[in-house]
């Protein structure tokens, strides 16, 4: 058969090229290649597509540099130290799962969501689960081991997927303002941290206590050395059960409105809409309250904290002073005047004219 020289040469080259692309190149493998520095997907191997390594490369690696995760082809002389790097043989073998790791000694493991990159840890394999648990009231996070098992899913979780042990844990735990002394005076002004409590216990509460406007302490009842650990029993301690509820200033504006009246018209039932603001500022530990006091042939309805003398009078009056805090104008119900008539006759008793008390 006759072929022009040129065609024969190109034909041969074409066959060679086809041949080369069909046979695997000796020693070249595919690895996952990425860095979490420029692609967060690198933390999740399922989102990374493997790519060819250069000729001669036989291993892949996943490395951790201060939380920055890098996956790639391990060059011949490239170091891969056991504590920060995992190497492996086989296509796409560097599909290690990534979890958060921090210990019970690190308060931030309990008090933050552990989202900081420094907590990233490379697990043994793609199927290694993430683990988070409460241990001695503190949180621990890491890659799970075969021995880890959870008996209570509130305080222990073993989960699939990358970074699946991040987030506040247990999910439902109270957050409180936590601070002491001057920077603690007004949480709306200074950047007072509001965060989960250091310890995790059931039915925890936030507290606030203060010796003065500049000596305020806020925290969690469960804190080691908490100033208020019994829940309001101690002098000046106020506790509460909702997130960041311990936010009061030393003195605060009252919110409750009270009926405020005195004299004859004050006996009858009052309209709740007539309730007025209680203007005096009260201490953080004072409970807002309205009162109705019937004594000495007079009636007074007002705010309990308006002045110290009235409060004292109300306390001394016992049942004659009714205190309430449940709603605006709660001190509105009718009171019987219960007045007594003085009975006398001036023809029998001269004093009856102008000094009837005798
Ligand atoms: C699980 O732990 C929570 C939180 O400590 C606790 O309230 C609950 O009673 C525990 N449940 C069981 C079944 O032990
Ligand atoms: C204090 O917390 C309550 C809710 O618990 C909220 O309604 C109020 O605005 C907060 N006050 C300040 C000063 O943060
Ligand atoms: C105030 O009014 C409420 C509702 O009318 C009543 O239940 C309560 O006993 C009254 N208390 C005072 C202090 O007047
Ligand atoms: C909303 C609010 O102030 N909640 C509580 C915060 O803490 C103070 C003092 O500890 C309580 O008096 C408040 O009820």
UniProtKB/TrEMBL annotation:
<feature type="domain" description="DUF753">
    <location>
        <begin position="175"/>
        <end position="246"/>
    </location>
</feature>
<dbReference type="Pfam" id="PF05444">
    <property type="entry name" value="DUF753"/>
</dbReference>
<keyword id="KW-0732">Signal</keyword>
<feature type="signal peptide">
    <location>
        <begin position="1"/>
        <end position="28"/>
    </location>
</feature>
<protein>
    <recommendedName>
        <fullName>DUF753 domain-containing protein</fullName>
    </recommendedName>
</protein>
<dbReference type="InterPro" id="IPR008472">
    <property type="entry name" value="DUF753"/>
</dbReference>
<feature type="domain" description="DUF753">
    <location>
        <begin position="30"/>
        <end position="94"/>
    </location>
</feature>
